Amino acid sequence: MKTQTADTSWRATLESQPGSETTAESKPTAIELLPLYYKVLIINALVILLGAVIGTFSAWMLSGVIRFQPSTHFLLIGTTITTVAVINVMLLRYAFQPLNALKLVVREVRSGDTTARADAASYHDPDFAEFGLALNSMLGEIQANAATIEADKNRIRALTGKVISAQEQERKRIARELHDDTGQLLTALILRTERLSRMEGCSGDVQEQLLQLKSQAEQTLTEVRRIMLELRPAILDDLGLIPAVRWYLHERVEREGIAAKLEANDLEDDRLDPEIETAVFRIIQESLTNIIKYAKANQAAVTIEREGNLLTVRIKDDGKGFDTKEATERAAGTGSLGLFGMEERAALLGGRLEITSGVSGTIVQATIPLGAAG
To answer: What is the per-residue pLDDT for 270?
Structure first.
């Protein structure tokens, strides 16, 4: 009674699916509607019965006609068993045909075709039909969820792009104000204190204090220039990516006692899209900052290559390396935007970022298609 209710529910569900109408010619038989378990039982029972009938009939027929040797008897039995086995395989293959169809659907989904669906209406076996309906329902939910996730990712990426763009504009504004206002005021203060220290009648004590004030102003101006460099080096806008990276290596990396090298033969005199130049410079800047802070490296090398419509940037050091997975999880937990920022900058331009690290050092490689910037 329970089986009959389940079969009725399955048939009602199947008939409600679009395109599941059946004609008189395609109406399934009673055997086709049996569950697979009973089909296998019936097939094997029929095969065993067939083998017994064939073996018995053959032995009876031959015994009345000829006398045969034991080897002939065994050959007859072997032939009978082989024939029965072949028939069994063919019948089971027919019974399991819906399972092969479901397997093909799963393979298509695994290969990336999320639109693949099982043709549950053609599965007369109730077990396979019910499984096909469940699989289709699950695949539909997965596809819907994947579409929602992809839409959310696109929205987040668009917002990230706007945040990064606004951040760059704000950095440029602050750097310009530091240069135009703070830098000029500090320069005027240095010149004024030096002029006062040389005036006639200036006592030795006052002169010493003026020189100390001048030294402090010079140190402050150096720090302001360093901050300007980190915020937005003017050379990036004026001369382009390669001069800006070369200047950063000299001003920031080499002054930390790290030997730095830049290779960019094919791009020496070329200007790229400003958005690409900014993103690449920030990726290089973040990588070099990490080398200075954590790597304990002796050497750092930056390579910028263009092959066709693809730009490859590689930053390599000979430092102690780190666990990339642990660093990513730690950055996510603490809200650090270092690694995330590099990945997002590459992704926003349609590129990708790869980091490999070990005891022999770290390699950060970004691959960005040229012309991707909007």
So the answer is: 81
Distance, in Å, from the CA atom of 342 to the CA atom of 353, rounded to the nearest integer, reads 7
Q: Is the pLDDT of residue 31 over 60?
A: yes
Q: Let me know: does 125 contact 36? Beta carbons within 8 Å.
A: yes
Smallest CA-to-CA distance from 256 within 317, 324, 337, 168 is with 317
CB contact at 8 A, 280 and 366:
yes
Other residues' Cβ atoms within 10 Å of the Cβ of residue 49: 11
Distance CA 119, CA 14 (A): 10
C-alpha distance from residue 146 to each of 130, 140, 272 (Å): 24, 10, 35
Q: Give the Cα separation of 121 and 21 in Å (integer).
A: 8
1 CB contacts (<8 Å, ≥6 apart)? none
Residues in the chain: 374
Task: List pLDDT tens digits, range 281-293.
Answer: 999 999 999 999 9
Average pLDDT of the segment spanning 236-256: 90
pLDDT tens-digit readout, 337-353: 678 888 888 988 999 99
Domain final residue pick, 130, 145, 160: 145
Domain that holds residue 72: 2-145
Buried b (16+ CB within 10 A) or exposed e, 180-203: eebbeebeebbeebeeebeeeeee
C-beta separation of 43 from 95 below 8 A: yes
Q: How confident is the model at residue 3 (pLDDT cuts 50, 70, 90)?
A: very low
**pLDDT at residue 2, as a whole number:** 44
CATH of the domain at 331: 3.30.565.10
Residue 151 to residues 87, 144, 147, 155, Cα–Cα distance (Å): 53, 11, 6, 6
State which of 128, 145, 162 marks the end of a domain.
Answer: 145
CB-based contacts of 361: which residues, under 8 Å, 6+ apart?
A: 295, 297, 316, 317, 318, 319, 321
- More confidently predicted of 281 and 53: 281
